[in-house]
Amino acid sequence: MDSFDVAVIGGGPAGLAGALALCRARKRVVLFDCWPPRNAMASEVRGLVTQDGTPPAEMRRVAQDQLSAYDSFQLRDEVRVEAIQSRERRFVVDAGEHSVAVRRVLLAVGIVDQLPDLPGLRDLWGVSVFQCPYCHGWELRDRTFGYLAPDDHCADWSLILRAWTKDLVVFTDQRFEVAPELRAELEQASIRIEEQKVVGLRADRDRRLAAVQLADGSEVAREVMFARPAQAQTPLVKQLGLALAERDLVRVDECHQTSIAGIYAAGDLVCHEHGALTAAASGASAAHALAEDLTRELLAEGVI
Questions:
Q1: Model's pTM, two decimal places?
Q2: What is the dihedral of CA 101, 102, 105, 107, to 10 degrees?
Q3: Which member of 40, 110, 116, 227 has the greatest number of CB atoms within 10 A?
């Protein structure tokens, strides 16, 4: 079985940035890029300085090419990690014939979006239905927007969308009653409220959103929809039994270490702010803390 200092699990912005920082700290790193990218439906990365507009696959290719220049780096591409076993602050990353022994683990596996079971939504996800206006709003500006509000606590998030459009409808889907104060605030912002049950999204011939279908058979013409789906941790995170914080995010301390000593986490699985830039920053920060901790251990053991 091969051995490394650190296994980075996940090859998105957090994992790539973390792996780079660790390689530059002279740590032996193996990167398992084994999860479907969360932004698989996105055609471009947005908001990441120097990479704005780059296709996600191209960004990953360039990052992997740059990492391959470090002789302490290995990529295990499309290799599924089945489990991580802990053995007295040492770990075995179980990936079949590609299993490795490591001193530390950096989890950067992202989070799983649980899309609403609404006819038409899944086919339009990443095409006309989005969850982050900071990632997509500029390209969609001044079109007709809709927002499928999940509950009354998230309904006022529609105010943020007004930065990109003047024509916005909030769909409550009969999930909650709009409080009078919120109703007045939305009306003041020229945001319309549709309280009927939403039964589907209709696409046009170009497979783009054309209208939101309501229970009474009527439609509301829209070009863009925003939704904030529920999210869940990956099976690997659940299998580890890591302690969770609010909204089921993985709990980490100020050094990005999880409830299992030696396992660190970064990116979308630990924070509410999701995006390539924030994920990369999280990955680099976690890697710096991990590298400092590991360096002290290696010095104490006389390894370096």
A1: 0.91
A2: -40
A3: 110
**297: Cβ–Cβ under 8 A, 6 or more apart, which residues?**
103
For domain 116-227, which architecture applies?
A: 3-Layer(bba) Sandwich (3.50)
Q: Which of 268, 269, 235, 274 is nearest to 250 (CA)?
A: 269
Distances in Å between the Cα of 123 and the Cα atoms of 40, 44, 128, 136 are 13, 18, 9, 17
Domain ranges of the chain: 2-113+230-300, 116-227
User: Over the stretch 206-217, which tens digit does the pLDDT of each residue have?
Assistant: 999 999 999 999
Q: Which of 73, 83, 107 has the alpha carbon at shortest distance from 5?
A: 73
* Region 2-113+230-300: CATH code: 3.50.50.60
Q: Is there a common fold for 2-113+230-300 and 116-227?
A: yes
